[in-house]
Amino acid sequence: MNLPYAEPFRIKMVEEIRQSTRAERESWLQKANYNLFNLKSSQVFIDLLTDSGTGAMSDQQWGALMTGDESYAGSRSFEALHDTVKNITGYQYLLPTHQGRAAENVLFSVLVKDGDIVPGNSHFDTTKGHIEIRKAHAVDCTIDEAFDVENLHPFKGNIDLQKLEDVYKTYPKEKIPFCLITITCNSSGGQPVSIENIRAVKELSDRYGIPIYFDSARFAENAYFIKQREKGQENRTIKEIAKEVFSYGAGMTMSSKKDGLVNIGGFIALNDENIYRAASNFTIIYEGFITYGGMAGRDMAALAVGLTEATEFPYLESRISQVEYLGNKLIEYGIPVQKPIGGHAVFIDSLKFLPQVARAEFPAQTLANEIYLEAGIRTVEIGTLLADRDPDTRENRYPKLELVRLAIPRRTYTNNHMDYIAAAVKNVYERRNEITKGYSIMWEPDILRHFTVQLGKA
Q1: Residue 188: is its pLDDT beyond 90?
Q2: Catalytic annotation on 124?
Q3: Which domains can be identified in the chain, with CATH numbers?
Q4: Is 443 helix (H, G, I), strand (E, B) or coil?
Q5: Percent over 70 (pLDDT), the chain
Q6: Is the pTM for the entire model greater than 0.85?
Q7: What is the rounded distance in angstroms from the CA atom of residue 365 to the CA atom of residue 441?
Q8: Is 125 annotated as catalytic?
C-alpha cells in the first residue's frame, strides 16, 4: 500500500493547555467586553487568533538563540540575517525592526505623505492604518473573483490590472508613491498572487513610473502556491520562485513572526541606497540602531535560520496541508468557507453562516464569539470591525467579505486539534438559527478599533 503522509518533524517539548467550562467562558467573555483580544491566554483552549509569532521554533533555531551576538552595532547575528535575506530576496540593504508594523511605520515615514494614493490588493489592517494615519488613502485593486467565496480561482490575491491602471490614470504620478502587493493576501482569505500577475503589475507600473513594494509576511506560502498551481513553476524550488518574485519590486516589508518562524521581529529590505539612508534615520528614531532595529541579536540569529527553513518545500507542504485538512473538514460539514483554502488560515463566511445577523451588529464578531463559547477556541473577525470607519465620513465601512479567520500557528497543533475545531464549528452551525442578534459598540479608538473595541450585546 502507499504510505500515508507524515510530518517532517518530531515533537521534542509540549505545553499543557486547559479546557474550561461553558459557564467560565461566558463570564470571561462578558468581562472582556465581547472582544476576544481582551481574553487571557489561560482562558483559551486552542488559540487561532493569529499565526503571527505563535508558532514553534526548531531545534536549530533554539541553538541559534544561544549563539546570538548582542553587540549594539555590527553584530554577527545581523550579518547572518543580512546574508540570508540577500540570498533569498536579492535585496542589498536590510533594516531590522521589532515586527512588521514597525517596518511599515519606518518605510511609510519615508514614502507616504498627506494626500497620497497607495493601490494594492486588499491592504491589511496595520498597513491601511499606517497609510490613513498619514492622511493618505489605500485603494483596493483585488480581482473580483476574490469576493466570491465559492469561486475556485487559484490566485484570488491577484491585482486587477484594469482597476490598477484606472488608479494610475486618475491620479498624478507624484501622488502614487508605490503599488503594494501583499503575498499572500490575508484580507481576501490568505489567497496567493501568481507570478504571472506580479510580472504584469510590474510591466504596467513601469509604464507609469510607479515602483512596487511587497508586504511579504507570508511570501514562502505564496511561493508554495505558485509552485503547486502555476503552469511552468512546478519544477522550481521555493527559493528560486521567491527570488524571482522579489526581483520585480523595489523593496519589501516583513513581519518575521509569520514566514520567519520566530516569535518577534521584522525587517525592511531594499535596493535603493537613498531610500535606505532615509529609512535608516527613522529606524534609529523609532526602533534602534540600524544593525538591530528593535531585535535582540539572538532573535536575529533565530530568524536567519527560520527564513531558511520556511523556504524548504517539506516544511511548507506540512504546514499548508494541515490548514487544508481543517478547511476540507469544514467543507465536509457544510460550513461556508473561502475557497480555495488559504495558506495560513481557514476563513468562514459569516454572511452565509449567520445571514439573520445585521451587518451593523457585526456578524463575523458574533460568530467568532459563539465559537469561543462553544469550545474555548479563539479566532478573529476579518470584517466590519477590522474594516474600521471611513477616515472622512466616520461611517462604518462594510467590506465585501465578512469573515472569521481560523489562523493556524506553525508546527504547534496536531490534526486531532483540527478535528476538535471542526466539530466545534459544526456544533455552532447546527444551532445557527438560534443566533439572531449581534453586538453594538460601547467604546472604540479612532483607528485600528478591532484590537481594543468594547462591545455590548445588541
Answers
A1: no
A2: yes
A3: 22-51+313-457 (3.90.1150.10), 59-310 (3.40.640.10)
A4: strand
A5: 100
A6: yes
A7: 12
A8: yes
